[in-house]
């Protein structure tokens, strides 16, 4: 299926999840090259709310029925993590390009299956790492490429928040719950982004740690706190930290031989400065407010229209899954 170049991409949303309601469906509605065509949910109460709130052209009580709709050009999948593989593959078999929430799969084997299905059916697939579409990330890359930090030796990246919704699927191990899947994937991706830049291969997914170690705390069958240590052959050491059991903390720092870059609110799209420290000098680098979800939707839709890859590629997605596998393996003997 190839969308004509003279009309908007018509989206189908598989699952009326919280992130779809609050962020992605509004982004589809505001995007210049997209329109909301259909929403599918197995919960009739949710479908009623979806009709009242967003007024899609169609709603479906089953996911397969949405995939059979010939008017849908692309699908967005915000289902629980454990269902990503099944419905991504089914969407690919129906010829639908897929934007799927992170983590794309529960492990690297799932990710490879999903990529293979999309390749075989010649459809575009992207993991929904919306933070990569912010001015904050663009400014971080500018600083890295400027060389002002010198040789980068250490990265620390954290994403923690108190998960105070007792019925959240994030607590359910059978659905792919846990902190590393939910928010730890962001620090891992961010570290990989910088490591690829250091290797002179931006976006390639080529930089992989030569060794990893990890510690975690388990409650209710999931990891509620996870800390990983990654060491690269370049000499870079990085820590990735995440959790559901503390005060919110979202930040990163990149430390080199000549300077330090502090990145608050690393994965968000609000305005607010980065802080660059070189020797005794300290200066702020302004960051403009972005609309990360809209930018993500517009890039993916344009990629379909222009028959090009989206800006965030599958090589990084597969690398993220492989690193996550290694981190989980590092804590298995301790559980």
Count the domains.
Answer: 2
Q: Give the fraction of residues assigned to helices.
A: 25-40%
| N-to-C series of helices and strands | EHEHEHEHEHEHEHEEEEEEEHH
CATH superfamily of the largest domain: Dihydrodipicolinate Reductase, domain 2
Q: The CATH topology of the largest domain, please? A: Dihydrodipicolinate Reductase, domain 2
CATH architectural type of the largest domain: 2-Layer Sandwich
- CATH class group of the largest domain: Alpha Beta
Per the principal axes of the C-alpha atoms, what is the gross shape? globular
Main structural class:
alpha/beta
Q: How far apart are the first and last residues' alpha carbons, in Å?
A: 47 Å
Rounded mean pLDDT is 96
For the sheet with most strands, the description reads: 8 strands, mixed
The low-confidence runs, each spanning 5 or more residues with pLDDT under 50, are: none
What count of helical segments does DSSP give? 9
Strand content: 25-35%
Write down how many β-strands occur, each being a DSSP E stretch of 2 or more residues: 14
Question: Could you give a short description of this structure?
Answer:
It contains nine helices and 14 strands.
Record the SSE blueprint:
Blueprint: E1 9-14, H1 18-30, E2 34-40, H2 44-54, E3 58-60, H3 63-67, E4 74-77, H4 84-93, E5 98-100, H5 108-120, E6 125-127, H6 135-146, E7 152-160, H7 179-198, E8 211-219, E9 222-231, E10 237-243, E11 249-256, E12 260-264, E13 274-278, E14 281-285, H8 292-306, H9 314-331
